[in-house]
Sequence to fold (198 residues):
Amino acid sequence: MQTALAIIAAYLVGSIPFAMISSKIFGLADPRTYGSGNPGATNVLRSGNKKAALFTLIGDALKGTLAVVVAKQMGLDDTTIALVALAVFLGHLYPVFLGFKGGKGVATAAGVLFALDPLLGAAVAGTWLLVAYVSRYSSLAALVAAAAAPLFAALMHGATNQTIVVGILGMALIGKHWQNIQRLLAGQESKIGGKKKA
Fold:
């Protein structure tokens, strides 16, 4: 029962749509109506309001961190903690509050990884930052970081439940970026801070 409640609570926390909340606070349009249509920090940034984008980024990351940290503080076993990590991430991707149509999960996944293992989180975040800085493509940075995450986890922890969950997160992130992959290949993907290309 405790495991089930922890998973449900994590999913609900993950479902909190910070892109929508920040847009309301800063008087912006619904982020699903412009740019990529994605309710996430990168798309909110396309509104031109950096504070709203930062609020979204921090909120989405913190909900991933909070769920895992609380599960650890409760003394739950490693398998349950791994399931909580997966649940909060899936809550962001498929939020009950937005008709199960959520963001792509990059910030929430980062929050989860830092909570599971700060070194793992730093390695993945560093990968994202490096690729984003060089390419100026948030989506490409996310794809490379998502592919690298389970490799880092396996090197650090071996074949554990945590590594399996990190692998699932990575595959889900890549899947959610499928349209971005198509645009990258076609040379139509918009860069960080820019407007969506036609």
